[in-house]
Structures are given as structure tokens and as C-alpha cells.
Amino acid sequence: MELRLEDFAILLALYQDPFMSMSELSRQVKIPESETTERYHFLKEKGVIKNPIAIYNPESLGLQRIHVITVLPDIPCLEIMEELCNAHPYTHYRTRIFGGNIGLFIQFDIPSGTREKIEKLFEKLVEQKMITSFEISESSGVRTESYPNLDKYNAGTSSWSFIWPIWFAALEVDPPPLPFHSKFIKNLTNFTPAQAQILRFLTSNASLSIEELCNKTDLNKEVVEKEYPIVKENYVGAIRFIYDREIFDLTETILAFGSEVDLRRQEQLYNGIKTDAPPFFLSLDILQNNKILIWITMSPGQASDFTYACWQNIPNFKIQVLDTKSQGSMLYCFYPDNFDFANRKWKSSTVYMVDEPLQSTKKALVNIQK
Fold first, then answer.
1. Residue 365 — very low, low, confident or very high, per pLDDT cuts 50/70/90?
2. What residues does each domain of the chain span?
3. What are the pLDDT digits (tens) for 147-180?
4. 142: left (phi over 0), alpha (psi -120 to 50) or beta
5. How far apart are CA 63 and CA 183, in angstroms?
6. Biggest alpha carbon distance in the chain?
């Protein structure tokens, strides 16, 4: 689908503020409001613009993010594992991995101190021959993100103006220290069922109005008006503008791991992204045990330059190419039922985190055999 120059201008403006009014958007893109409205609805109808979503901060809720990479024996096992991810209450994200092996990358946001439950789950999956092997990495809770800077995209040449070796070379020699991160245990005394319900719906559509949230949560307007700003201030880390990335040639997603990365290099990468971010969606997660994870979506032309620059600058660097262009990936909404409001804690029994999700693999296996 070919877009007009004003369409790119609309996307650029909405990227800066997805909740911009039509009158303000018209002023920004310098075309009449009637035409702006027409082009906006056209982009929505064609699926170029999608609803923005709220990205919650797991640490603000006393949860810890862990990353699991699995190697699978065959395609049927891949389908079963995707069913398990759909069934597991703490799945945050999952995506297929391209490469020499069939694989699945999964992110879980789990209650603090329950890593052994996830390990037990995957050990059982190995025993059942659903997966061949797995590797778990734990987030330290220190992470930062950058989002596509559409100013760096040339619509005329369909190219991005950015040079990875120059960016790496410009990283500060003596950067500021990483931010201090306290333990994942949080006081959730004031976390309410209403807040949990609001957060759940904002993670699927952050543009919902107060009235729409009332309808979806069955809460009265007074409660929603009181709890909505508390949710946004305390638990939402960012509002992400969602659009068709192929329009900007952002079709290559790479997962990069580095191990034995010294503290100085961690600080350089973290502060480099905070102060002079590359113009792509990029997430840096400082992992425990001197490891880092970089998740980045960019153009295929930029991907090879990024990979080569990482090999030169990040110790023990390895990459995975992710399937984010089709149905091979899924971002999950916040799940309110995980929190036991009667006892003021996250559900973390073996039955809840291991046994019940494993039942989904048996059901999926039966469906595949049929």
C-alpha cells in the first residue's frame, strides 16, 4: 500500500503523542482538519494505525521478569508449547525463533522467589519430550527502551539514516552508574481489584475512555476516575503507539545476548540508549550474573550492521532472529486473577504455576492427534 507524504507526517505526529486531537494533529501536519480526519480514518481502516497499548512495569507490582529460550524437537511440539504459553498465568510474551533449531522465546513476569517453579515446569517438559532443552535468564530489574524515531526515516528512499559503528564509538568512556534497583518485593497493600481490572484493559487498548473502561470493567464512573490515574502513575511504564512496522521497513527482529559483560560496558550501553537512542524499537535488559539482553526491531539493511557492531563491542555475543511478522508472536495482557486479594499476595503454588499449565499440553496434544 502506497502512502502519501501527509500520511507519514500523521504517523510521525501520532508517534510523539498517540492521543493528539484532530485539531492539534491538523496543526502539526499543516493540512486542513477535514483532510487530516479523513486520512486518519483511512490509516485506521487499513490497519496502518492500531490501538496504543499500556506497557506495565513488572517490578512496580512486585514481579520479576525472566527470559526462557527453548529448543523444540518438531513443529507439533511448537504448537503445544504455544498453547502452554497461552494457558500459563504469568506469560508476558512469546515468539518463535528462526535458525538452525525450532525454538520459542518466552518472557514470564513471576512472583519474586518463584524461579524454581518455572525451572520445574520446563524440566517436566523435557521429561515429556515436549522440548529438547531450555535456558533461563533473570532480569535485574534495570532496563531501558527506545522507540522508532521516524525523523530518521526517509520516505522518499525508504531508508534509515543511522550508522551503528559510530553509535558504539560515541558511548561515554566513564558513564554514570546504573540506577539502583531494590528487591522485587513490593508493598501491595493499596493495590485494589479495580486497579487490576483497569490495568488489564489498558494493556490491550490504552486509548479507552473513562466511559469505555466503566463498560468493560463494570465499575462505576467515580471508581474509575479515582483509580485510573493511580494505575497510570504507579504501574504503567509506557504507552506504546502501535502501527504497521512494514510501512517503515521495520521487519527484522533480533534478540541479542551478551555474557560476562563487565559493569562499565553495561553502564555505557544503558546510558547510550538513555541519552542518544538508536532510532528503532530497542529494549536493553540488564540481567543477573553480568549478562545483558538486547531486543531490537529494525530494517533488514540495518540488521547486519547492528550484528557486526555487537560482535565487536559485546563480549560472548550471540543472536536469535525472532518471528514477529506473522502469528508467531503474542504479547499478553495483564492478568488480574493472578493476585490473591484476600491474602494480599501473588498466587505461586506449584499447582497454579506448574501443574495446571501442564494440563494444557495434554489437551493440545489430543487436539493435534485428532
1. low
2. 1-46, 51-63+116-123+139-357
3. 888 788 887 888 899 999 999 999 988 999 999 7
4. beta
5. 10
6. 64
**What local confidence, expressed as pLDDT, does residue 185 receive?**
64
What CATH code is assigned to 1-46? 1.10.10.10
Q: What confidence tens digit (pLDDT) does each residue in 176-231 have?
A: 999 977 666 678 889 999 999 999 999 999 999 999 999 999 999 999 999 999 99
Report pTM: 0.91
Q: Residue 162 in contact with residue 153, Cβ under 8 Å?
A: no
Residue with more model confidence, 158 or 33: 33
Cell numbers that stand for 101 in this block? 533449531
Q: How many CB atoms lie within 10 A of CB 215?
A: 12
Cα distance between residue 99 and residue 118, in whole Å? 25
Whether the Cβ atoms of residue 258 and residue 314 lie closer than 8 Å to each other: yes
Q: Which three cell numbers stand for residue 144?
A: 531501558
The one-character DSSP state at 335 is -
212 three-class SS = helix
DSSP percent split of the chain into helix, strand, coil, nearest 5: 45, 25, 30
- How large is the average pLDDT for residues 93-107? 91
Query: Could you tell me where the DSSP H helices lie in the chain?
Result: 5-16, 22-29, 33-45, 75-87, 115-127, 164-169, 193-202, 210-217, 221-234, 263-275, 300-313, 350, 356-369
